[in-house]
Amino acid sequence: MNRPINRSPSHRASIWTRRAFVAGSLALLGACSTPAVVDSAKSATTSAAIANEVRVISSGGFTAAYKTLAPLYEAASGVKIVSSYGASIGNAPDSIPSRLARGEKFDIIILADSALDGFIAKGQAVPGSRVDLGRSLIGASVKKGTPKPDISTVPALKNALMNAKSIAYSASASGTYLSEELFPKLGVAERTKVTAKKIMSERVGAVVARGDAELGFQQASELLPFTELDYLGPIPDEVQQKVFFSAGVVQGAPNPEGARRFIRYLASPAAAGVIKDTGLEPVAKP
After folding, report:
1. Are residues 259 and 181 in the same domain?
2. 3-state secondary structure labels for all residues of the chain
3. Cα dihedral: 9, 11, 15, 21 (round 10)
4. Greatest alpha-carbon span in the chain
5. Beta strand 215-219 with 167-170: parallel, antiparallel or unpaired?
6. Residues 60, 196: one domain?
7. Which of 116, 122, 171, 216 is 20 to 30 A from 159, alpha carbon to alpha carbon?
8. How many domains does the chain have?
9. Cα-Cα-Cα-Cα dihedral of 218, 88, 16, 23, to 10°?
10. Is residue 272 one of the residues assigned to a domain?
11. Dist. CA 22–CA 260, nearest whole Å
12. Which residues pair with 140 in a beta bridge?
């Protein structure tokens, strides 16, 4: 399941072949210099810049796919994609909830489906704008050269959790599920209170790679890019949390039409191959 991500030029060239229409153009102003014309020119310049730019904030689960797809879209469409990253939930300064609460301007948010639904319910994202992009599975990794515990069955997973001296898990949706639902369900909650740590504003893979935790859990799409790790596989289906990563238009987005065009591309069959290669199950079929 730990398949290498194909980033060859031929693979990239086949991802996206259509050029999106770029809205807005600047009028030639000649020698006109009256205040009204200057104000009009500034307004036209601002409008054109907004129409040619889409601001996106993505949570970690979709990041690997996004970092390949966004440049492909930019190259084909001429639209500038301005990217930011943060956790789906939580109050870390760079989390999506914190940044929206501060009034930061985005056109698109990409995050766990339940979190997006919450933003829609609170009026921070546009109703009806949710588009599912890919389904995620929680997996586990260890540092290369260290023992690789079996997590393929529920009893084996429980044994691995009980024996691990240190465990790292995400502060986002997958980590909330692990700490609040799975650990108690498996009867390991008392043990993990001592050994497990929620990781804020950093990927779990980075913590495991430098040896600060011997066993790390996060979405497979976030663990697979770390070549310093051995990916153990997903946790068993019986206890798996299957989360969709979804995109939505932010309420008050500066460029809502540009946002919808980019979301359509991310949800298209043209993007599905990249999404699959990065550890997600795409909604669209390649």
Report:
1. no
2. CCCCCCCCHHHHHHHCCCCCCCCCCCCCCCCCCCHHHHHHHHHHHHHHHHHCEEEEEECHHHHHHHHHHHHHHHHHHCCEEEEEECCCCCCCCCCHHHHHHCCCCCCEEEEEHHHHHHHHHCCCECCCCCEEEEEECEEEEEECCCCCCCCCCHHHHHHHHHHCCCEEEECCHHHHHHHHHHHHHHCCHHHHHHHEEEECCCCHHHHHHCCCCCEEEEEHHHHCCCCCEEEEEECCHHHCCCEEEEEEEECCCCCHHHHHHHHHHHCCHHHHHHHHHCCCEECCCC
3. 10
4. 78
5. parallel
6. no
7. 171
8. 2
9. -170
10. yes
11. 13
12. 217, 233
> Is residue 176 situated within a structural domain?
yes
Name, in order, each residue with C-beta under 8 angstroms of 274's C-beta and a sequence gap of 6 or more.
15, 65, 68, 69
> Is 3 contained in some domain?
no
Q: Sheet holding 196-199: strands in order across?
A: 196-199, 167-170, 215-219, 138-143, 229-234
For residue 29, give Cα distances in angstroms to 32, 36, 39, 48, 82: 6, 12, 12, 15, 29
As given in the structure block, the two tokens for residue 244 are 């969709």
**Does 4 map to a domain?**
no
CA nearest 147: which of 233, 215, 222?
A: 215
Per-residue pLDDT at 243: 85
Instruction: Tell me the average confidence (pLDDT) per consecutive run of 10 residues in the chain, 286 residues long.
Output: 43 37 28 39 49 92 94 97 91 92 96 94 97 95 98 98 98 91 98 96 94 96 94 96 93 98 98 94 90
